[in-house]
Structures are given as C-alpha cells and as structure tokens.
Amino acid sequence: MSYSISQVKWQQAAPLLKNIREKVFVCERRIPKKIEFDKGDRTAYHMLVCDDTNQEPIATGRISPQGEISRIAVVMGHRSNKVDKFIMQGLFSIAHELSLKEVFITSPLEKVDYFTQFDFRTVGSVYMIAGMPKQRMVCNITDAIASAETAKFYLNH
Q1: How many domains does the chain have?
Q2: Residue 11 lies in a domain
Q3: CATH label of the domain that carries residue 93
Q4: pLDDT per residue of the chain (157 residues) written in tens, 0 to 9
Q5: Which of the residues 24, 27, 50, 61 could staple to 87 if both were Cys, CB 3.0 to 4.6 A apart?
Q6: Which range marks the domain in which residue 65 is found?
Q7: How far apart are CA 157 and CA 7, in angstroms?
Q8: Exposed (0-12), middle (13-18) or buried (19+): which is 43, by Cβ within 10 Å?
Q9: CA–CA distances in Å: residue 52 to residues 5, 40, 49, 58, 117
C-alpha cells in the first residue's frame, strides 16, 4: 500500500479530519463529540494520511504549538499497515520546525508501552481523566528525529 501524508490546516481539512476522528473516537471508543472536538483543533498542526489507491482519508494526528501530541487516529482496516508511525514522524517533523526541544502526550495507561517505541518516557504518576487512567509521557525531539530518519515516507506540505 502507498499513502500520501500531508500537513493540513483545520480550517481547510476539518471535514476530512472529523470524519476519521468520529469513526475512531466517537463510534469505536464512545467518546462524546463535545469532548473529542475542542478549541485545540483550531490552533494545532494536523497530519492527514490518505490511501493512494482510492484517495480515502484514513488517519490523522495533531500537535499543539506547545508540543502536545494528541488525537492520533487510524481507521480500522489500516491499523496493521503501521500508518501511525508515519503520523508520528510527521508530527515530530513539525515539532522540529517549531524548534521545540521535546513533545509530550497524555497516554492511556494501556498504550504506554506502545509510545516507548517512539522514544517517549513516562513522567510523573498515573492520573485519571474522565474515569480512564492516563500517563504523561515526554520525548526529546532530537532523539525522535534521529530514529525517524530510518523510516521511508513521503511528506507533503
């Protein structure tokens, strides 16, 4: 499979980004729309991944100007293709362009091991958000960029 990965603005790509996040977060994970879509969407930098075969949007993620990575979503049927790694690499590139030293993520407790493969490390203790255990994790951008350089992907701006 081949994919196109683009950095997009919320104002232009909101319908595509919302479609992906509604499928993953609202329908699958039962997160209320009013929680899923917030003010952060307007100021964040967004990645959009489309399947080249049918031009269908299949994945997204965002990073705030302060370095918070969030809303990483890959539609069912494409999760085994490691599309999430392309999103993370794109978000790390944006962080590098913003001259951020590190980025952070609020990880569901069951995904902590998953994020360690991207050089994230845990910080602080586990806490609860909306009844779900979370863990703050941080990643040094220099380390993330170095490990991402081994992957091959095409990034549009």
Answers
A1: 1
A2: yes
A3: 3.40.630.30
A4: 789 999 999 999 999 999 999 999 999 988 889 889 999 999 999 999 999 999 999 999 999 999 999 999 999 989 888 899 989 999 999 999 999 999 999 999 999 999 998 899 999 999 998 788 999 999 999 877 776 554 444 444 3
A5: 61
A6: 3-100+148-156
A7: 5
A8: exposed
A9: 10, 29, 9, 10, 27
